[in-house]
Fold each of these.
Amino acid sequence: MESKNVIAQRFFVTGVSLVTSHGPNGKNVMAAEWTMQISYNPLLIAVFIHKGSNTLDNIKHTKKFGINVASEKQSALVSVAGGYSRKEIDKLNILNLFDVIESKKTGLPMIRGCVINAECKLTTIKKIGDHYMVVGRVISIIYDETKKPLIYHRNRYFQIGPTIAPVRREVTVSKGIFDEFCLQRGNKFILKCVGVLVRSKDKILIFNDGHKSSKTIPYVCPQKNTDNKKELENHLKNVKIKIVLKENPQIKKLIIKHKKKNQRVNFVLFRGILKKRSGPLAWKSFKNDLFLKSLVR
Ligand SMILES: Cc1cc2nc3c(=O)[nH]c(=O)nc-3n(C[C@H](O)[C@H](O)[C@H](O)COP(=O)(O)O)c2cc1C
């Protein structure tokens, strides 16, 4: 019987790369699901290869390899590249299977019809567990936008399914609210805010200092990578509002709309308790205010 660990491993999901190489025994291709980009700059790709493979010997010998990310039409190629060793058969020369092009730059055999073709120079090789981590710096890379990657899961091949619609509530807001958030957005695609909801029956505490046109809950747009709760606490202190924030905030993802324009806003929302009626505050019913309603519900 297979152990639980062995079965559990199959529940990971990956793509599959065709790793090409050449060496003392000629040109070769193997399938490797454990392939990934691991650095942007320099662009590095790691592939984890078992010791007994001909591919590992080749890479150790020539210090270069090709990564050809398989497309959804290439499952037959993958199963041969992964099902046989070069020690058993010259896979690249099987009739009508691999469409190979030899790289002028590196002499590596590269596979046509893939999503990505990258030629790599070996930078690191290290034994990790029962595989070798092989890291290469990309010296040449191309991609084909028209191809979709093959997916591997539970020993089977899949195609990418439809995209999942983002979970965002759309809310039509006043010009004042819209302009305020747009102003703060700058060149960011999504504006991140952190705010506090203090509720009393159907009323919500709003910040009302007479300057902001929007008159909505106390909130702030925190600096990147800063503790959101602390940023909000500091903001409340600065505007002299005494609210104690509760733990466990909610996240509300909104698309705010005004006329034909829209803007994505993410709200980290803390519940709060008003300690002392202080600062520029007012109560506002959320029943007729779509924006407040979207924060409450
Ligand atoms: C879908 C699939 C994914 C695979 N992924 C890996 C992998 O990430 N690392 C690895 O060492 N072997 C992997 N293998 C097994 C090798 O491709 C296989 O051992 C191959 O025969 C080695 O070929 P070579 O000896 O000609 O280099 C995979 C096989 C399949 C079918």
Amino acid sequence: MDMFGKKFGNEERASLEVAEGSRQTEWKKTSFLRGLFDGRFSWSLVHPFPEQAPEDKKTGDDYIARIGKLLKDKLDPEEVDMTGSIPDAAIKELFAMGAFALKIPEQYGGLAMSKVNYGRILHYVASYCASTAALLSAHQSIGVPQTLLDFGTEEQKQKYLPRVRQGTISGFALTEPGAGSDPSQMTTTAAPVEGGKFFLLNGEKLWCTNGVIANVLIVMALTPPKIVNGKEKKQITAFIVETDSPGFEVKHRCVFMGLKGAQIGLLKFSNVKVPRENIVLQEGAGLKLALTTLNTGRLTMPACMTGAGKYALRVSRLWASKRKQWGSAIGEHEAIADKLSTMAASVLAMEAMTWYVTHTADRPHADIRLEAAMAKKFCTETNWNICNDALQIRGGRGYETSRSLRERGEGEEAYPLEKMLRDARINTILEGTSEIMDLFITREALDTHLGKIKPLFDPHTNIWNKLKTVAGMGLGYALWYPRLWLPVLGVGNLAGVPPQLKGHVLYAKRKTRQLARGLFHALMIYRQALAKKQSLVSRFVDIGADLFAISVVCSYAAAQIKKGVSGSETADLADLFCRIARSRIARRFGEVRRNQDALKKEVSRNVLDGRYEWMESDISK
Ligand SMILES: Cc1cc2nc3c(=O)[nH]c(=O)nc-3n(C[C@H](O)[C@H](O)[C@H](O)COP(=O)(O)OP(=O)(O)OC[C@H]3O[C@@H](n4cnc5c(N)ncnc54)[C@H](O)[C@@H]3O)c2cc1C
């Protein structure tokens, strides 16, 4: 079936078909964001803010205290950055305390931590050493433990999960030199041999985090295509691969601007023999497995970003209140106060979004694929801005390395802000770039509509079925669409929400309806070509992100005040965040109507065609 239409070239259409065929299609569980994009503002899913059970919190608190001590005793993040490696002694002790088996159930030798505690632990580690957070996260969020817990057979779990307590490190190998955001371009093959009992893996995998030191990997590879409806269909299959297998080679350890201690490599597979029983899920289901693993795995990212953002805020606070220039502390100058207040409001929003989604992930009736993607995009971009502002607040000291600051003496505080900025930059790229998150979120946000109108675009649907679809749609939309224009009279339970925040919750409900109308109108105007209107859809996604952030911030602030963690000043902070977010939302709705998208497209075409090459004169080439 062709749901992509003639606007797409053959190659693009083929990639989209592979991605579409590997989507998690079922939507059986609750999702605040899915409702939001449909015009439903399910405040009761957000408020009261989810709470960690006291025993679970104590387990997390105790573990964080222990891992904090271990890291401070055994691992110097500056040394990791300089030498490009995490000391073996520290890794050994991390294994001993189960840091590589946090989410693995006790029956397989793991610590059986809740997702909230896992997130809290990674949040702490990321605030201390980003490379160590990458090591633990790549192994547990997307590597062997998560993949096998979600999709492994009992035999696979029993064979591989206990090994994780004994020193096994894992990674996830999807990306290739020619296949980044578009995994359908992969060329690594797994050819069946010996009557299909084994497969021979051949090809290269790029930038596999932990790949240089991993003992076992989840590797996605092409298995022989299938013929479906007379057409050849690519089959991508996931394999568990032991790195001591003959034919496996680390071809190159990659070096980046940040994450210097992470062991990320280009891996080569030359006739690596893998038994059939190492297929995870089933033959041909490897891309679905990879994308589904990333859907929840990328949830670790917001926790790490929140940890890092809080550290940057702390450094900024300490410095801006101490450093005096022009007669007062720099934090008293309005330009710096602007940055500090925005940073604090943004940290509150990251915190609220992260813990809302993480708590929700622990609930069996919730589907967090949209929330995790949104939180990943929001928190990685917000943290980048926060780290950048923190560096600006530190002035020249922000640009100086922590080692140089310390060695310079004179009581300089050796805050590693330049390292934080280097470490932070990759996060808007890996585990799904921000641009790909926009496309993913839009696809899922429109799923209800696409499910209804797909038969209309399908050349194989006969005219009677098309008419039946139109009739069914007419009835459904006659009930749904007018509701989006009704005035908002209330949102339900606002108990505990500070007075200055109640209006923001009502606003979020009102704008939710405007967002759903806007998306629906855009779909009706552009139909399949909406997927090509990336600037337009990214505005809708950003509006959705801010509405989500406003909702969770109001609920989170109420919870913090109720618990006595903070006083009414947190209501002011949430109020500030909501006001900033509302300005952004107003601007984006305005840009939906009036924008420079067409002119930008024309200019970028000229750039690509080299028509402004004359401006590249007198530079080094
Ligand atoms: C430090 C590091 C660690 C990594 N760890 C792992 C790992 O453990 N396992 C693994 O499998 N991979 C890993 N990766 C790969 C990472 O996931 C990819 O870098 C990412 O998926 C993007 O692919 P790419 O870099 O090839 O960019 P490309 O896909 O070439 O994209 C380049 C730019 O074009 C944009 N773009 C691409 N397609 C579209 C589109 N359709 N519409 C709009 N914009 C588009 C992208 O957003 C990006 O801005 C890692 C990468 C790095 C740098």
